[in-house]
Design a protein that fits this description.
The structure is a single chain. The chain is of the alpha/beta class. Helices cover 51% and strands 14% of the residues. It has a 10-stranded mixed beta sheet with strand order 1-2-5-4-6-3-7-8-9-10, sandwiched between helices. α4 packs antiparallel against α5, α6 packs across α13 and α9 runs parallel beside α10. The radius of gyration is 26 Å and the shape is elongated.
């Protein structure tokens, strides 16, 4: 009898010690993360953190001054298309060799064979009469035809109107290396400059630095970020970010998604799932595909695949200065029937602005 009594007493003591250890460990973890607010979605069950901004909030640059600065930077870039246009306008006479060189330059700038043929055919007709002796006339014709190719009639506005009092939800997609997460952070700055309230969702849970990077962008302009643990279910994190946005009454929820190689079927399936899960509680207003303008034809392959999976509604072209070829703007719009809505021309925090056909062409022509 005494044996069983002491066995029971020993078991109780052991349980108390284990419980005490669990409580101590949990408290220690909580102390190490004072800014994290754990939440658990009743539907998805993935634990997330809400990273709240600290003091020292920056004031983003207004969109108008961004456009002027970015156009000036494009004019001073080493863009292949810009060089080809400048070379054409510098010629005293336009012979067959000149037109052949110009056509080759346009194609090498990723303008595409179809748009190149259209442009060269029109220019040859118009400039054959007066040539380029009248440089002002030649520049006017060239500018007009380029603007037509870029297509000023496309709707480049961002759909930021939520339905039924819910936030607009913007998914940012693209492969790693295109500047996707950075673009998401920069877009948050654009929206804050327009006096919109924003919430960031770090649904790229497969890249260790992505959530931290996005949180840093948000903190700088006073925007919260909802993030999960590394390897957590991206759809669950996205769902909870939108859920938080609805509860807080924000204007826009920006969701940064995973960007592993676009040839991985699993990634495409995951993106489709993220979109479907979000739309259980709110419509997705925009799906913005981020493309690196220096990748040329490879960027077009990426664009087609993403479009088929998540119904891309707008394009963001990054790195259009420097080694970018420029003509990709025309070709990718033609291929997809989707407008370029935002353009990035540098590494600065405010080097992202709405895309304008006329401003882009003027920049290419050094004006």
């Amino acid at each position: 009898m005494d044996y069983f009594f002491w066995l029971i007493i020993g078991g109780v003591i052991l349980c108390l010690l284990i419980a005490t250890g669990i409580i101590w460990t949990s408290n220690r973890r909580a102390l190490r993360q004072p800014q994290a607010t754990p939440e658990v979605s009743p539907e998805h069950g993935t634990e997330v953190e809400v990273i709240e901004p600290e003091t020292g909030i920056e004031v983003p640059e207004a969109a108008g001054s961004r456009l002027v600065r970015l156009r000036r930077r494009l004019a001073g870039s080493n863009n292949a298309l810009a060089r080809g246009l400048a070379d054409l306008l510098s010629r005293d006479r336009l012979d067959e060799d000149t037109w052949d060189e110009f056509e080759a330059t346009l194609i090498s700038s990723d303008l595409g064979v179809g748009p190149t043929t259209e442009l060269v055919t029109t220019l040859r007709k118009e400039l054959a009469i007066e040539g380029v002796a009248d440089s002002s006339h030649a520049a006017t014709v060239l500018r007009r035809e380029l603007v037509n190719l870029v297509d000023p009639t496309m709707d480049r506005s961002l759909n930021l109107q939520g339905s039924d009092g819910k936030p607009a939800v913007v998914m940012v997609v693209g492969v790693n290396g295109t500047g996707k997460t950075t673009t998401c952070g920069k877009l948050a700055r654009v929206l804050v400059a327009e006096n919109k309230t924003v919430l960031l969702g770090a649904a790229d849970t497969f890249r260790a630095a992505a959530a931290e990077q996005l949180s840093t962008w948000g903190e700088r302009v006073g925007v919260e970020t909802v993030r999960g643990e590394e390897g957590a279910d991206p759809a669950s994190v996205a769902y909870q970010a939108v859920e938080r946005g609805i509860a807080d009454g924000v204007d826009v929820v920006l969701i940064d998604t995973a960007g592993r190689l676009h040839t991985k079927t699993g990634l495409m399936d995951q993106l489709g799932k993220v979109k479907r899960v979000i739309e259980k509680i709110a419509p997705v207003s925009e799906v913005l595909l981020v493309l690196d303008a220096t990748t040329g034809q490879n960027g077009l392959v990426q664009a087609r695949i993403f479009r088929d999976v998540v119904d891309v509604s707008g394009l963001v072209l990054t790195k259009l200065d420097g080694s970018a070829k420029g003509g990709i703007v025309v070709q990718v719009q033609r291929e997809l029937g989707v407008p370029v809505k935002l353009i990035g021309l540098g590494e600065g925090v405010d080097d992202l602005a709405p895309f304008e056909a006329e401003g882009f062409v003027n920049g290419l022509m050094g004006e």
